[in-house]
Amino acid sequence: MEKETLDKLKYLIRKKRSLKEICNELELKDYEVIGLVTLLKEQGFLCDYVNGEIIMLKKPANEEKTYEVPYNMEKLKLLLISDTHLCSKYDRLDILRYLYAKAEDEGVKYVLHSGDFTDGKNNSRPEHNYELKELSYQGQVDYCVDKYPQFSGTTYVIQGNHDNWWYKSNGSEIVKAIANQRSDIEYLGADVGNVKIGNLDVRLFHGSGGIAYAKSYKIQKILDQIALNERPDILQTGHIHQAFYMKQDKTHCFQTGCLEDITPYVRSMGFSGDKSCWWADIEFDDKGQVHSITPTLEEFGNKLIRRKTKKWEN
Questions:
Q1: HEC sequence for the chain
Q2: In whole angstroms, what is the distance from residue 130 CA to residue 136 CA?
Q3: How many CA within 13 A on the CB side of residue 4?
Q4: 132-175: per-residue pLDDT in tens?
Q5: What is the pLDDT, as a whole number, of residue 308?
Q6: Furthest-apart CA pair in the chain: how many Å?
Q7: Backbone phi, psi, residue 143, to 5°
C-alpha cells in the first residue's frame, strides 16, 4: 500500500498539484504528506516542501559540503575507480569483485568513485535499451544494491551524467537511492563531491561532454577553475574513460578510466576505453600533514577475472 501511495504522490507532484489537492487525492493530512515527501527525498526523488507547497527540483542540489573522516595514521592507501556503468550488458562485476577483494586484503578502508555508478537509461537514444541488463529504475537500484561488492570500509561516490539520465526521466537521484540501502556506500552529491580524510583533501568530479584533443586538457581546465587556496590534495575525475595522472602545484590529478567493456555506441563513435583503476599511497608527516602521494595504475584486459576465493562473493 505504501508503494502505491508513494507512486501516486510522485505523479501528483509531477503534475504540480497543490498541497491541498494532494491531501484530498491521497486522503491524508498535510503533515502525513510532508512526511512522505521526506521519505521520497531519502529515496532520491528530487522534491521538497517549500513555502507551504511541494515542488519538483529542477536539478540535484549541489551543497558543496565536505564529508570529513577522522584519520591519524602515518600511511593511507586508497582505491580510485570510476564509470562502472552497472546494469550495462558490458559492465565488469568480475573486476569490481577482484578490486574489492584486493582492497580488503591490503587493508584499504576507503574507495573513491567519481561517477557513472550505473549505466542509466537514455530515452533520447532508444537503441541504448539493447545495451542494458535492467531497463527500469527500480530494477537498476535493486541490481546495484544486490550485486555491488560488499566492503568492510566505505565507498564514497558522486553521481555522473549516466546516473543523471534517471533524474531527467524519473526525477530521482539513483545513486542516492542505492547508497540509502547500503551502509558501506556514502553518496557525496551530483557531479562533484568533497571528502576530507584526516588532513587529506579530495575532490571528486565527473562532468560531461566529449573527449578533448589531449588527455590532460579537461582535468587542467577543472583545476584552473578552483582558487589556488582551495585546491585539493587529490582531484579525481571520471567520464572520459581514459586514465591519466599529473601533478600541478600541490594537487595530484587522477583521471580515472572505466570498468566497462567497450559498448557498440562507444565503438561507433571511434572512442576507446581504458579499463583501469588507480591505487594511491599517501604518507603523512609527524604533524599529520600530507607528505607524499604515490600513484599506481592497474589495467585490465577483456579476460574474465576469477577470484581465488569465494570470500567476497555477494
A1: CHHHHHHHHHHHHHCCCCHHHHHHHHCCCHHHHHHHHHHHHHCCECEEEECCEEEECCCCCCCCCEEEECCCCCEEEEEEECCCCECECCECHHHHHHHHHHHHHCCCCEEEECCCCECCCCCCCHHHHHHECCCCHHHHHHHHHHHCCCCCCEEEEEECHHHHHHHHHHCECHHHHHHCCCCCEEEEEECEEEEEECCEEEEEECCCCCCCCCHHHHHHHHHHCCCHHHCCCEEEECCCCCCEEEEECCEEEEECCECECCCHHHHHCCCCCCEEEEEEEEEECCCCCEEEEEEEEEECCCCCCCCCCCCCCC
A2: 13
A3: 3
A4: 999 999 999 999 999 999 999 999 999 999 999 998 887 889 99
A5: 47
A6: 63
A7: -60, -45
- The backbone torsions φ and ψ at residue 240, rounded to the nearest 5 degrees and listed phi first, read -90, 0
Phi, psi (5° rounding) for residue 179? -60, -35
Query: Are 2-56 and 66-299 equal in CATH topology?
Result: no
Q: Identify the weakest region by mean pLDDT among 62-71, 100-109, 145-154, 270-279.
A: 62-71
- How far is Cα of residue 136 from the mean position of the Cα atoms in its chain? 19
Which of 90, 112, 89 is closest to 99 using CA atoms?
Answer: 112
Alpha carbon separation from 76 to 1, 20, 108, 140, 281 (Å, rounded) = 47, 54, 8, 33, 6
Q: Are 175 and 84 in contact (CB under 8 A)?
A: no
- pTM attached to this predicted model: 0.81
- pLDDT given at position 312: 36
Please give the grid coordinates belonging to residue 134. Answer: 535492467
The domain limits of the chain are: 2-56, 66-299
Top CATH class, 66-299: alpha beta
Phi, psi of 231 (to 5 degrees): -70, 140
Q: What are phi and psi of 167, to 5 degrees?
A: -65, -45
Fold classification of 2-56 (topology level): Arc Repressor Mutant, subunit A (1.10.10)
